[in-house]
Amino acid sequence: MNLISFSEAPKVKRDRNRIQKIGFAGLRLITVVTILPILGIVAYIVAKGIPALSWEFLSAMPRDGMRAGGILPAIVGTLYLMIGTAAVSIPLGMAAGIYLAEYAPDNWWTRLIRIAIISLAGVPSVVYGLFGLGLFVLFFQFGISILSAALTLSIMTLPVIISTTEEALRSVPYKFRVVGVSLGGTQWQTIRKVILPQALPGIMTGIILGLERAVGETAPILFTGATFFLPHLPSSPLDATMALPYHIYVISTQIPGMPITIQYGTVLVLLAIVLVMDIIASVIRSRARAKRQW
Amino acid sequence: MKKTEKLITNTIRIAGSSSILFVMLIFIFLLKEGLPALQDISFSTLFSKRWYPIEDMYGILPLISGSLIVTIFSMVIALPLGIGTAIYIGEIAPHNVKEILKPMVEVLAGIPSVVLGFIGVLVLSPLVRTTLNLPTGLTALTGSILLALISIPTIVSIAEDALYAVPGSYREAAYAVGATQWQVIWYIVLPAARSGILNAVMLGVGRSLGETMAVMMVTGNAPTLFSRLEAFVSPVRTMTATIASEMGEVASGSAHYHVLFFIGIILFLFSLVVNITSSSLSMRPKRGKDQVVS
Predict the structure, then answer these.
(1) Which letter, b or e, does each residue of B86-102 get, where b requires 16 or more Cβ atoms within 10 Å of its Cβ?
(2) Which residue among A131, A159, A275 sits closest to B30, beta carbon to beta carbon?
């Protein structure tokens, strides 16, 4: 036990103020060390990638073993994958989120569902790739295709969409439900006409963030739908496709003598897609927050 | 009207339970394709020290040790940075600084891992090679640094949530007896947020262990068992990278194919343990929020 006499008290006060100063300085330094690489990476890619960008780069097929020309098939492939993933994961994820927020009783089955969602969220992306290969490519015989890859990505995206939908619905105050039902609406009518519109911005933010992750993933599409090179654009969901993330992997590690500008240009295109989605999500979020009346 | 309502409600109910189905499907298909490995290959071969599939040597120990090494070292870097940044953002930063820092961490979370891998190959690994004077820059260290970057956003956001969840009354009580802000953070807030921060650590580990592309691109992919400390600055190979780089070339149904799925089972089980433990950690404080801190 330390007893502090009156004469020592100012010293203790000085000491603890000094400790606080050192501690805060340390935390500031740590934050700078964490944030700087992020800024550095983004700035570096933008600076190095912009010279490669041109209309031709975005709209032409690759030439000379991908060492020249554009990256159109990779961009289109990524868009197809995004659309396919959205088509499956949005309705399924929203429905599951609505179930958990509005219908699910508090019992062991619901707890099991929650454990399952948490588990899905943590499955490594390459394991999703194995699963997609086993189930969609081989068992259902969809082959290496946009369909297989989009279904794999959908299941990977599902937990994000379910949790954000549930969270957004739960944040709508209980009185909205009481009012909806008291006006003679059924439970579903209340959800659809009253609760969902209120929760929509939150749900959209979650959907965009989920799709953003799907767009950037490489490992789940490695053995389910991505191909090294395609001389034409994919024409059916059963075609394999090029995709930006896989293309980046290929041109940066698999092809010797790849012009560096093309590499940085491709990376910049993917980064731009992801950042734009980020910005849209945060705009939706902040506008909804400003408009909200509860 | 009543009929459609019933139909919709039932659809939502079924969708709600879909996550359980998917987790089971993932597990079943991993087992279906991975368990035959135990028939194809003897147990002693599987748990031996050499991974050399061309000569039918399928020792997975070096892969497990590779995964563990990069994960552990990435946490050594990411935990102080991530938790420190969370404390700064959550407790110290003025409001406007906070509003800038949070989106930046989200930007890092959105950068696809293949983009970070690309930067790792072109910028980080030459840097590691020249500063440490190594024969190659593709090392466990390089991989750990990238993994730290990848897991930092997860750690920051979960740790910040944990700090935010500490009731304001705890802080007020400490200030009332004359504590400095630093003392409040160090002796009150951090211990109270303990389980949430542990949760952040677990999810960071899960993120690191399951990461595939970035690690595959920068660790040099040499399957050697970690034995000496120098191994830290030489090439290693992780479980995820092995699956991603070899699955494309194996004949479906071969022993090699089954072993890769077997590695998938190990990864899947590991992610289950990590995520279920962490979710039970994060559920606990809700019950005892107003109980004693200690």
Answers:
(1) bbbbbbbbeeeeeeebb
(2) A131
